[in-house]
Amino acid sequence: MTRAVTLTVNGLARTAQVEPRALLVQVLRDDLNLTGTHVGCDTSQCGACTVLIDGLAVKSCTVLAVQAEGQQITTIEGLGAVGALHPLQQAFWEKHGLQCGFCTPGMIMTAVDLLAAKPDPSDAEIRHAIEGNYCRCTGYQNIVTAIRSAATALRGAGQTARAGV
User: Fold this and answer.
1) How confident is the model at residue 143 (pLDDT cuts 50, 70, 90)?
2) 3-class SS letters over the chain
3) What is the pLDDT of residues 75-116, one digit of tens each?
4) N or C: which end of the chain has fewer CB within 10 A?
5) Which residues face 50 on adjacent strands?
6) Are residues 50 and 102 in the same domain?
7) 9-23 pLDDT per residue, tens
8) Rounded CA separation 21/129 (Å)
């Protein structure tokens, strides 16, 4: 048995026929073709599926799609565009905050939430914020450096991390 669910994703209303038990991450990837949100562990441990729901970082494998109806969902695809990257996307690129890239969308979405709440976090605060996001490649130092760099860029431009989201 399926039902129609209308989700507002990256500013656009999108409707899909889903089973009531369908997870948000599944609907984003399989029905809406937003494959930047990754499925890494299926147990909410890795953070690869992190999106913003009403501006807050949420692991989309812990939310039923029907629960997200009526809320604003932002995926990595909604942050920036080719030639106009979000400051966090740009910083991850410039500061080598990624290697394989699998964890990167979740890390960036978590960092958007962090920097919106705390525009000038310490390294310890950054590390605490991303502790629910696993990276198997980088050793985290360049991720922390990238988030710190983006925080500086955002403050210098007088923006918030959620600007444009």
Assistant:
1) very high
2) CCEEEEEEECCEEEEEEECCCCEHHHHHHHHCCCCCCCCCCCCCCCCCCEEEECCEEEEHHHCEHHHHCCCEEECHHHCCECCECCHHHHHHHHCCCCCCCCCHHHHHHHHHHHHHHCCCCCHHHHHHHCCCCCCCCCCCHHHHHHHHHHHHHHHHHCCCCCCCC
3) 999 999 889 999 999 999 999 999 999 999 999 999 999 999
4) N
5) 59
6) no
7) 999 999 999 999 999
8) 29
Q: 129 and 94 in one domain?
A: yes
CATH number at residue 29: 3.10.20.30
Q: Which two tokens stand for residue 22?
A: 């369908």
Which pTM does this prediction carry? 0.94
Q: Check whether residue 38 and residue 94 sit in a common domain.
A: no
